[in-house]
């Protein structure tokens, strides 16, 4: 594989996570998927390795790596198991990053060392039953009562929630404000009275990852749990999603690469009509499409990560990377099953799991339709000057 001009540090992270994923995660991934079992031990170990704080400065308790190193870590985990990939992505991009970017000094001192070490996993609660793609349609409310905010409402499909020590959630703080206005973000510790976990989702794919409903019933959080500016939660989560989308692109990229990794040796070994199926031009055409599109998705994804590292605007590039890599993941996993024939349709080979896992990439953190809205909107903005 081309090196993509990775620095020595980025290559070291890639090699370390790749080794761990191949040796420790690949052998248990199918079992975890079948049992819908969250890999607690893996995340304990990844915490010890520094991977849960990989993209954050050492003085905050992180590993001091850059966004690209983190993106490569998500990619390498997803290459063997998407459930591990999405868990890391949701923790770092959606849970930790807003604390790092918008937290006060006190909030960062309180939470950053815990979330970077893995003492706490973290989560991001934006989606609600009535507020999916229309994330500004938040109905959860947080009203000030003395020294506390009182939160009521529910959140839907929240990754890592069962295992999280702290959540970042959004709630309406100005009930009169229209649309996406009057929303604020809060840090909620998960042992507070009034915070309850709802239904655990029984999912098509990424079954070893944790996806939960959250229910807030007069949940009182301290006044200083407000994250960022009052009523300015919408821009906060839009910026959070700009980064998060790169991590879902990395999830898709890893799954697509995993599908290709499985397909090449299979096509070389499997014989029909007296020859390995890789000698048939139609199979070669599938492999060529997969290799080309996975490489193109990697370019888009790494480019978006590098823009973020350079502190440049990356809304359009993140959306393009997510949209394209997700499409590639669906196609590559479909072709991988086709190359494996009937065996690919069984649980004896990992491509069946990759195919199921890939679909989430077209839905989570903004559907593909929403990514196209973001891309077109940014394009029009640029042309308008
Ligand atoms: C496994 C999993 C993990 C998740 N993790 C999290 C998490 O950690 N935190 C969190 O907050 N959320 C999370 N989500 C929620 C996810 O972000 C939403 O499911 C997603 O944004 C889509 O919202 P929705 O499901 O309500 O679909 P809807 O918004 O109801 O969309 C249904 C369909 O309508 C289309 N549509 C909607 N609006 C438009 C439009 N304006 N133009 C064109 N088409 C449109 C959509 O693209 C889609 O095809 C997760 C979801 C899943 C499945």
Question: What report would you give on this structure?
Answer:
By secondary structure, this protein is α+β, with helices and mostly antiparallel strands. It contains eleven helices and ten strands. Strand 9 and strand 10 form a beta hairpin. The mean pLDDT is 97. Bound molecules: flavin-adenine dinucleotide.
State the main characteristics.
single chain; 385 residues; alpha+beta; Butyryl-Coa Dehydrogenase, subunit A, domain 1; Butyryl-CoA Dehydrogenase, subunit A, domain 2; Butyryl-CoA Dehydrogenase, subunit A, domain 3; 3 domains; 4-stranded mixed β-sheet; 4-stranded antiparallel β-sheet; 11 helices; globular; binds flavin-adenine dinucleotide
Shape: globular
Note the run of SSEs as H and E.
Answer: HHHHHHEEEEEEEEHEEHHHH
Uncertain segments: none
Total DSSP E strands: 10
Bound molecules: flavin-adenine dinucleotide
Structural class: alpha+beta
CATH homology superfamily of the largest domain = Butyryl-CoA Dehydrogenase, subunit A, domain 3
Number of domains: 3
Task: Provide a count of the helices.
Answer: 11
State the name of the first-level CATH class of the largest domain.
Mainly Alpha
CATH fold-level name of the largest domain: Butyryl-CoA Dehydrogenase, subunit A, domain 3
Sheet bearing the most strands, described?
4 strands, mixed
Cα radius of gyration in angstroms: 21 Å
Query: Portion of residues in helices?
Result: 40-55%
- Give the strand order, joined by hyphens, for the main sheet: 1-4-5-8
Per DSSP, what share of the residues sits in E-state strands of 2 or more residues? 15-25%
- Average per-residue pLDDT, rounded, comes to 97
